[in-house]
Amino acid sequence: MTERQPRRKDVEPLRLPFLLTTNPSVNALGERIKEATPDWEMIVMDSRRFNRIADSGYLAEIHVGHVIEKAANIDPALKDRIIRDPVVDGDETANYLFKQNQQGMLVCWKKRGPYGKPEQVAEYDHLLMINFLPVVIEVKTSNAPHSTASKKGSLAQALTQESIIKKLRPLQERLSTDRFAYVMVVNQELINPNSHFQQQFTRSGGLIVPLATPHAEFTEAAAEKLQ
Known about the structure:
By secondary structure, this protein is α/β, with parallel strands linked by helices. 33% of the residues lie in helices and 23% in strands.
């Protein structure tokens, strides 16, 4: 069952305890991501540094990381405005502990779960500070544009109020702010102006950015380069 396609006037913003916003530098970084083509030599090299299955989603995360790194280091318009990793491994708050591992930055409850292990709350693909505004960048790649919010890992699920609160509540506590930029980087094929979830997200202040390379082309190139 696919999601209902409402008229735009039917869609109300998400009810969030935060303000989703942006600024010209965040928008400029979105444009860099939108225009960038993959540097496969660098992507393959980085993917082999970690013992992790290199699926197309993970490779897309690496690609977006390269765009961010280039913008932060050499882009004249952005290099003095981007702070990478405003939260680092071992940072903690009254309720949360941040941990860096091969998957990226994780956040767990400080109170241990029933088996004595910290219970994971959320994972971040990329965390930045741009012109003093905390920025969460999530990368979602899929060839299933009509997935619903009940499907784990789907774009629709990632755009729900519950998912966004899980991501931002720990950062609110750590960074003492309720203002964030939230950027969702997706396949071109997933962008649907009539999608209830996408309308709701953008009307709430979120930013959706398409990757430059179509999903099928990216996946085929990934398979070839990783042989």
